[in-house]
Amino acid sequence: MSKTKAPKMVAPNAKDLSDAIGVVLKDYEGPVDVKIVSDKLQTDHPNWKLPERRVNKFVKRYMNKHKNPAGADDDQTASMYKKQTSVKGRGLLGFFSPSKRKNLVSDPVIAE
Known about the structure:
Elements: H1 14-26, H2 34-44, H3 52-65, H4 91-95, H5 98-104
């Protein structure tokens, strides 16, 4: 008997995945649903192993790179993803640093 082998699942490299997402999202209208993009990529490339988390990462990169798609003239058609910013601090150790204590403690007021 002859056995039919299932096609080997491979993880696409970053360039191929980014290009494929660009093709899917180029004419996409409305809010981006990662599940729909992932399903479309699976139908276009059935031998790719694509975790939804990885697709989400590349969709966010694409949306950040292409902030204002063609025809986005109002808030409803503009990109829904915003670049995440974080406050850089030194954490709890920075809160208790000597320089912070100097700024927090003021000179005592002497009443006469």
